[in-house]
Amino acid sequence: MIRTQESNSGERTERSLAFALGVGSVLYGLAELLEILHQAQFIDGWWTVLAVSAVFGPAMLLAGLAFVAPLERVRIAAGLLAVGYLAVAALALVAMPFAAVPDDTLWIYRVANLGAVAAVLVWRDTAALAYLLASVGLATLANAHGVARATGYEMVQDYTLALALSAVFAICSWSALRTAAALDRETAAAELRATSVAVDEARERERNRFAALTHDGVMSTLLEASRARETPVLARQAQRTLTQLDEFRSGAADAATVDLNTLLDFLRTTVQGANVAVMFTVRRHPNAGRLRMPVDVASTMTAALAEAVRNSARHAGSNRVDRQVIATVGEHDIRVAFVDDGVGFDPARVPTHRLGVAVSIVGRMEQIPGGSGTVESKPGFGTRVTLTWVDGASRA
């Protein structure tokens, strides 16, 4: 089965491997060019043309598409290389007479590792392993047929050597992809844990708030009522306590929310976890302390902010870059701006498949009610990412 799931680290790793395979295959082909031309004298002409096209044509596609095309197309190019190699290795058995090539080995036998790496990029573990065994087996048979290495010992020796070499490249590629996938899972789990911590902190704050309200409001009102007759002061205190209880009840009815302090702690912790120096500034408007944000919205905003910081760490440049986060909080809204003075880029030239900007930042924010995100940048003038959320209840 062909894999279709894309991820952050996983996608970058897969594209890097595809590019390395494409460039490496082309260089391999150039290094083998004289040998290919020499052996073409002893093999049917159609096979050499087909073999070169089937192996090195997709390799050039991989090198060109690896970082600019949708990942599905990159995998298609890798699949063409894998299937093409398998086909020409099998056809070599009919394209040349027995012992026709006066060399030690065929060039198609020596490039079996290219098909093996391509298979890892396209198929799951078991299918890639089956491909490795089959492709090396066909290459060994073709080699034995073409150069007259027909004894059992020689074929086993050739098969073992080609299998070991191809397996090294395939296992390295497989390990890189597995490690990247594990990193993506751990990142998602860390975000989930951070959200869980935020929920627990919000609940603890609400419990403390209720305990304080019970002690300072309810108990003191009852105590005053037991000590004295009804007075205007007592009546106002009782009314204020009832109002606070109503506010608490309406707030508690809302599914898990976080208050401003918890939200800011969540954002600050996310920024500090990016391993780059970032100044964190908070600007509070009057009544900003009343802001309440649903936990899922807080999680989405922090995830988008984390992606902005990571993008800056990767792409803002290797020289000293100043980065800062400015959180501007109102009673019913918050705007978080991440700014760096790095190398910048042209947003209009970012490919649509690049998840960092299109999905992980802007797309995330636009999926939540009241959320929006913008990315402003210019080559040589840094980047500004703005995340905004407005409470829907305040707009109603």
UniProtKB/TrEMBL annotation:
Protein name according to UniProt: ATP-binding protein
Stretches of the chain forming a coiled coil according to its record: none
Keywords associated with the record: ATP-binding, Membrane, Nucleotide-binding, Transmembrane, Transmembrane helix
Transmembrane segments: 16-34, 46-69, 76-100, 106-123, 128-147, 159-177
Taxon lineage: Bacteria, Bacillati, Actinomycetota, Actinomycetes, Mycobacteriales
Keyword ATP-binding included in the entry's annotation: yes
Domain of life: Bacteria
Protein's UniProt keywords contain S-adenosyl-L-methionine: no
